[in-house]
Amino acid sequence: MVILKSTEEIEKMRVSGSVVAGALDAAEKAAKPGVTTGELDDIVRKYIESRGAKPAFLGYNGFPASICASVNDEVVHGIPGDRVLEEGDIIGVDVGSIVGGYYGDSARTFRVGRVSEEADRLLDVTRDALEKGIEQARPGRHLSDISHAVQAEVESHGFTVVRKLVGHGIGRNMHEDPQVPNFGRPGRGLLLRQGMVLAIEPMVNAGGDDVRILDDDWTVVTIDGSLSAHFEHTVAIRENGPDILTLNA
Ligand code: MG
Ligand code: MG
Fold this sequence. Notes:
Layout (H helix, E strand, L loop, with lengths): L6 H24 L6 H14 L3 E2 L11 E5 L2 E3 L13 E10 L2 E10 L5 H19 L7 H14 L3 E2 L5 E3 L6 E5 L16 E4 L2 E3 L5 E3 L6 E3 L5 E3 L2 E6 L2 E4 L5
Antiparallel strand pairs: 1-4, 2-4, 3-12, 4-5, 6-10, 7-8, 7-9, 9-14, 10-13, 11-12, 14-15
Helix pairs in contact: 1-2, 3-4
Bound molecules: magnesium ion (2 copies).
């Protein structure tokens, strides 16, 4: 069941979203060669707490940290720790927060120093695919219009979308209905309505689309070892179109 949010609830979610945006800004500034993913986690946790918010991921289904930190061929759900970032790495940072019972969820992939031309393009295309998906998040469109817009942008640049993982509704829970796939034919599925709030999150591989989970039971990696990128925003569907709740700190 898809839970519609009132304007008042959307404004509460914007507060939580602004905490996530600020946390990602802090992580972006810190993501330099020589920094560990565990240090990024510390920075984000302290930032979230400084805003009077709670990190949403810490303890979620037993997850041990406040960010997911996914480096290079890691797609999502990487566990931060002792890994030292090196020049040329890319790192996806996913952050969630809770304010007044409402969740915000957003992710960006950062360049660590100078990266390869392929990595550079992968990040630009994934971010653009997210924007294309968000443009479809308006009343009267169908859910799969979002999915299709993401897939079309990604595949037009020769990259692939991960199919085993999807975006989601969000509100008083981090994961609500509906699921938001990053592929599909347009004009299908749920009719989008004012008050729906979706976490739209393309996960894009430079190689094949298939992924597997490491022995830590969390980290998702590409099967072929190719690079992967992830961008995500929490987006409210308003009368006039999409309203990105995780845009500004
Ligand atoms: Mg996320
Ligand atoms: Mg999400």
